[in-house]
Amino acid sequence: MLANDTLLRALRREPTPHVPVWLMRQAGRYLPEYTALRARAGSFMALATDPSLAAEVTLQPLARFPLDAAILFSDILTVPDAMGLGLSFAEGEGPRFARRTDDERSINALTVPDPARLRYVFDAVREIKRALAGRVPLIGFAGSPFTLACYMIEGRGSADFAKVRRMAFARPELLERLVGVNADAVAQYLQEQVRAGADALMLFDTWGGLLSPSAYRRFSLAPMRTILARMPPGVPTIVFTKGAAASLPAIVDSGAACVGLDWTADLSAARRQFGERVAFQGNLDPLALLTDAASIERAAVELVAAAGPAPGYVFNVGHGIVPATPPDNVAALVQAVHAASHRGRRPTADAAAGEAVEVDEGG
Amino acid sequence: MLANDTLLRALRREPTPHVPVWLMRQAGRYLPEYTALRARAGSFMALATDPSLAAEVTLQPLARFPLDAAILFSDILTVPDAMGLGLSFAEGEGPRFARRTDDERSINALTVPDPARLRYVFDAVREIKRALAGRVPLIGFAGSPFTLACYMIEGRGSADFAKVRRMAFARPELLERLVGVNADAVAQYLQEQVRAGADALMLFDTWGGLLSPSAYRRFSLAPMRTILARMPPGVPTIVFTKGAAASLPAIVDSGAACVGLDWTADLSAARRQFGERVAFQGNLDPLALLTDAASIERAAVELVAAAGPAPGYVFNVGHGIVPATPPDNVAALVQAVHAASHRGRRPTADAAAGEAVEVDEGG
């Protein structure tokens, strides 16, 4: 039903005519049309909670670049906000909750939120699907239970999340209870996104990499497994933990179709070791996009080569695009990935001719 | 010649009566006697550049805790300071250079500094060795060529070292030249520390983990290899890159006797895979020291068990002790490691009796 289903096929490790590419934070502050819309809306939350504005923002990068997927414009903290914790974004600062969830009482009081409180997200998914009209798939997403817990415990972002890391040693059973409630809430949230039309799902585990490998397995990977096991069959899933290279073998067994890698992970080694079990997504350093077209093309070619020709690879940055990124550099990147992946899949053909023809490698 | 040479033996993967333990930043702001001395000296640099004050600070933690090594009190940025870049530490901020080294001209102008400009460090090493009187070994150290380059390029610390990461893509040959000069300077610096009496050496690569694995090998690991190849035989070396779990197989081949692991690395897997080729050092989350004696003991026992009984293990934190750490918690940790390692090496003996007897496992 999709005109371009390369993302879904790559996530299922099926052959694709080219390497699909999308970019974390592809809709965002580096685009002047985003900045303009946000200024009109007044705030980030005003944008994110208005389904038609969220849809408009989601579609903005697709109007500029031939990306192979759209991703819902939203925030990872919508779920704890719906739990009643009072999310706000002060200008020039990060997110902040009105209340911290950092002790027995506040953690025991948490419950899975009524989906009606997140209806603006599901409405946005429906509106985006209508606007996409089958061009490319839409990725729904949520923050991981542990990453949500990080913000809930500290009440805001933190340079080192010291309270969370202390709790992992001093009150492990309490932290486990918190991520358990979050897992139930996130599972329900993602199921609703699928009902509204999301074609694939991603778990953003921004802070799981702060933990030791044994703590990561217990407090971050275990609740993500719980969620992944409850996702509807046929909807491919991506799990992305930043900074968890040491836990890659365990993440490969999480139940996700695809493992997202940050830019410090070894894509080539991961594909060689685990490429027959899961798809991989990643992992260009987003700061490469602050250079120039020639450097970006060189980096893209190197990364596509490192991924190798086997099915099951999705090109992405290894962390979100930064606001200072020139949009023309994103255009250069998307073009370079598509061109390099055509060449890579037709090693004997003339490179220029290769770009004009779509050929699957054997699957 | 040393009363307690467990560290040196562990670095050489020889059997030891207990797991040796020392702690990154064991001399530092968490100790009231350090804070008092620094207040009297007036500044961090006044402490670090006065050999007898540096010696006094180095010895402070050994007066409190039965640590198995001393580490020179100094800063990783002494080398670029000696290159004439004008290092200073503003109160409440990090280090800062008077000049940035971020273009062709400034990088080409760099030369290996005259060792006389670093004589205060070598004098401190001599004074510490005299004061130690053979009780435990003294670890000398330097910042890695890439980590020095990070501060030299930015002119100071940075949340993301964006200029450095951009340079790795846009001007790779220029960055390579910079880390090359740094490697020559650091090699000479460490050779002089050995001449002054250092018993072991450590390279602190705080920021190598910011790079992709291929960039890490080129800009951080390659110059560290150059240094390690020039170290005098018989002086064991430790290389510590924070956040480079994906590059562990390459680090194991660096030529260092021991690989330091940060707290997000998998000590158990590293020992199983590479424990017959190098020693490992690490890797407790330093924030575990902000909890309580029981939690600290549990964490220490778990980590010593994860390391396993084979020779070649040095207990340490996975990053520096933080200023808020209660000294009593450090005492609890050192005691717990020594006790757990006695028990671990006598699995059939009564645990209490085991603590009183020193027994080597077969080597």
Structure in words:
The structure is a homodimer of 363-residue chains. The first copy, chain A, has 363 residues and is of the alpha/beta class. Chain A has a domain at 27-64 and 69-260: TIM Barrel (Alpha-Beta Barrel). Helix content of chain A is 48%, strand content 11%. Chain A has a seven-stranded parallel beta sheet with strand order 1-4-5-6-7-8-9. In chain A, strand 2 (87-89) and strand 3 form a beta hairpin. The longest helix of chain A has 25 residues, at 172-196. The two termini of chain A are 21 Å apart. Chains A and B meet through helix 9, helix 11 and helix 14 of A and helix 9, helix 11 and helix 14 of B.
Labels describing this entry:
globular; alpha/beta; homodimer; disordered C terminus; 7-stranded parallel sheet; TIM Barrel; two-stranded antiparallel ribbon; 48% helix
